[in-house]
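Database export, one record per block. Field names are fixed; values are copied verbatim from the stored entry.
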Amino acid sequence: MSHTMQWRSLWRLGLLALMLALGLALSQGALAQQADPGREAAFAVPAVDADLWRQVKAGETGPNYRDSRAESTYNLVNASGETWRQIRERWISPFGAIAVLGMIAAIALFYLLVGRKKLDEPRTGRKLLRWSLVVRSLHWTVATLFILLALTGLNLAYGKTLLRPLFGDGAWAAMMSGTKLIHNYLGPLFGILLVILLLRLLSHNIPKAHDLQWFAKGGGLVGKGHPDAGFANGGEKVWYWLLATAGLAVIVSGFVLDFPNYGQARDTMQWANIIHAVGALGLTAVALGHIYIGTVGTEGSLEGMTTGYVDETWAKEHHNLWYEEVKESAVPEEQIAQAKGPSGSSPQGSS
């Protein structure tokens, strides 16, 4: 009896040792598969080979290898996605960075060499109403939204390369989440307000013959004297029509990307992304020049968009044709200050 029990114990120990050996062998196989992704894929899907992938890419393998989305006719491997990636990574991203950084460098160089454009004559102290309160409110709202969209757009384009290594994955992920939220929700609002502003300013930006002279004289940088200009000069009209063309293209493509549930195909989304990126990066670069000229670059320009009024001297030097039309309506600065009263707003400026 004791011998029988002894043999049973030995048999159980042998069986346990065999199970441990098999477990170790299986674990080594799993580790080997993890170390070799190709072997793991071959083990999981042994029928997939290079010939099959070529068939999948060409759409020759039937419905089992097609996109699972409803009514989709795309193959499991979509070559257009790689084309879109190549255009974005090889052309749009590098040349967009060159355009924006190049504009910043050009502005800095121009400021160092030429400096701020000051008024040639002393101020008269008499003011002309240039921008109404409605237009100023629209302008500053659109400008603020533009800056927010430009910053968030640049983060979407370059943040992974520049900010992720700097802040780490956690902070970068939170930053990108907020970036996409701001960009996606403020974009449609910017588009609507920009169209309203463009319609409001259309009558001032119709091209005229004297605009060619303005360009020939480089806006006053070439030769003596200031070229003729109406309410808007040639440079301002170029900026207006850039917003009215490239800006509208950015808005339309942005709507296509923001609302992907209206039946647009994948190729449409890819082209919308390319148009959106090219237009937005180009407008951002040009906007830097517009911001410079309208603030520190030209004496007297910023106060027109902050207070609504400009000095007679500024009007004569920069927009002489417009000045001839409205010079009889000039009022002393003191009168404007009295009309504003305690509220700080002018009746004229609210028109």
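Remark 1: The longest helix spans residues 79-113.
Remark 2: The chain is about 70% helix and 5% strand.
End of record.
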